[in-house]
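Dear colleagues,

I hope this message finds you well. In preparation for our joint manuscript, I am sending the YqaE/Pmp3 family membrane protein (Aliidiomarina soli) sequence together with its predicted structure, so that both groups work from identical material. I would be grateful if you could confirm receipt.
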Amino acid sequence: MRILIAILLPWLAFFTIGRPFAGIICLILQLTLIGWAPAAIWAAFSVNKHYVDKNT
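The corresponding structure tokens are as follows:
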């Protein structure tokens, strides 16, 4: 579910994993149309890393 949020609303994904400062930076990046794709990729990698770190 978090991966889907990371793709659709990248800034919200950072808030769900407890990184509000990164979420604000991601929101600023997402406000530009060109920046949305890198923001989604960054959020997806961060959510995946959070999941891996939590399960180890």
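For the figure legend, we might mention the following. Residues 33-55 form the longest helix (23 residues). The mean pLDDT is 91.

With kind regards,
E.M.
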